[in-house]
Amino acid sequence: MKRFFSSLYVQVILGILIGILCGIFYPDFAVKLKPLGDGFIKLIKMVIAPLIFSSIVIGIAGMQDIKKVGKIGLSSLIYFEVMTTVALIIGLVFVNWIQPGTGMNIDPASLDPEAVSNYVKQSEEHKNVMDFILSIIPHNVIAAVASDNLLQVLVFAVLFGIGLTKIGEKNAEPVLTVLQSFLKALFAIIKMIMYLAPIGAMGAIGFTIGKYGVEALSSLGLLMISFYLTCIVFIVFVIGAVLYFYVNINVFKLLKYIKEELLIVLGTSSSESALPGLMQKLEDAGCSKPIVGLVIPTGYSFNLDGTCIYLTMAAVFISQALNMHLSLEQEITLLLVLLLTSKGAAGVTGSGFVTLAATLPVVGHVPVEAVGLILGIDRFMSEARALTNIIGNAAATLVVAKYENGLDEAVLHDKLGSAHGQKA
Description:
- By secondary structure, this protein is mostly helical.
- Helix content is 76%, strand content 0%.
- The chain is built from 21 helices and no strands.
- It has helices at residues 2-5, 8-25, 27-31, 34-63, 66-98, 117-124, 129-135, 141-146, 150-166, 169-193, 197-219, 221-247, 251-257, 259-268, 275-284, 289-302, 305-321, 328-341, 351-359, 375-403, 409-416.
- The longest helix has 33 residues, at 66-98.
């Protein structure tokens, strides 16, 4: 029994359950638990930027082959674009099929612009493609790390890694040795922080339930059910098919393997909180360290499958709720714009919601203030977004590793406990 409760997996489940119960029965107290969740996420974010920087630099410089780095980068980006496009289309198909907003008959004049003014202001800073491209170039490296801007850290890390390959292995070796020791120290810090995961999950989920209540779930329940259902379909049938037919594994075995990371994401509503653990798990499962170091951090910016599903479903839901139904041409326009704006979501605070506010005006007649309709349940939907994002990135790493001959399939099947032809 003692061994059972010593498992992080079990502890996080207990933390989530305690948080939910507090939120339901003691909402005022549960709201005060918010600093526990915020504190845990801040502790994780404290090491994310240096972790990504070190992993990418070691991955690129460790190859000592720019063509190989470029090939992996191109393979990753092509995969990301294909999967996020599929995610956007699936979101669009499901929201038009279920029509969760039809019949709500919301009067546009009743919308409160103040409720979403902060998000609208943030979205205006990322209003076109050129602004987005310029925003990923850091003013200076220290500021990028300090502001936790992962896209800017990513850009500098790639350039620094390529720079090390240019000066030769002998000159690069001292820097790589220091970075490898630094990375080991970061993982040691993360291991200590993970002891607080159950408390962080309890605080985050307790605050969400206590603040917004079960009423928020019921009032917009059909949208939430539709969104969760769509995410499940995407994970099981799209990601599942890719893993089954190309990587030769069962998606449910992968989910079981990364269950601790998924529970942490579920409790904190942040996919970043599980990034270090996910990288370690994929390396242990036979993925090449350089490939993990390149694909996972890049995927956190460019492979946000859950966010893509959310963006299309939320935009069309709002138009349905206001009786401002979109034409096929407008939906196609929305899809094309989201192919670009969704890639910048990770670089914006409150990513999905801010990106939605930035994209909605593109369809013309739908007022941007209408995003306030889903403000109350956005926090509940963020769990599914984050879970789908992290599963998508785990799958992406396995696919790219297999394609680039950087996957030890014997180790992978041993860790996951099954091969293609075996029973799950």
